[in-house]
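hi! just following up on the protien thing from before. the input was this:
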Amino acid sequence: LLAAVAFIGGGEKEEGYRYLELALDYAEKWKAIPDGEKLSFGDEAVFGGIVYIKGQSVIELPDGSRRPVDAYDSIDGRLFDSGTIYYALTAPKGWEWFDPARGEERYKEITERARRVGE
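and the predicted 3d structure came back as:
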């Protein structure tokens, strides 16, 4: 989403649209994962077997103990929230970088897709 903002605001609309589509693709994939699912961060040698519990803003350590993750910084609340994408596309203030594209039909179609994904 932030890359899309930068490209569109910088006059590179095609690249911005590409990143908007990617953001929505990932939001759809994220939404399809059920809340409560334990998600690995990746290589156990690097991340020590810590998992993220989707929808709870919690990480689980290898010993089974859990630690909260600040809601603002959590994966759920920030990175993949499709509602955030829709908000950014429709906000009257704070997301003016999208202004060069707002009147375009393609932008309206992406905004509608974001609304559907966010439902």
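Helices lie at 2-9, 13-32, 44-47, 75-79, 82-90, 105-118.
The mean pLDDT is 88.
cheers
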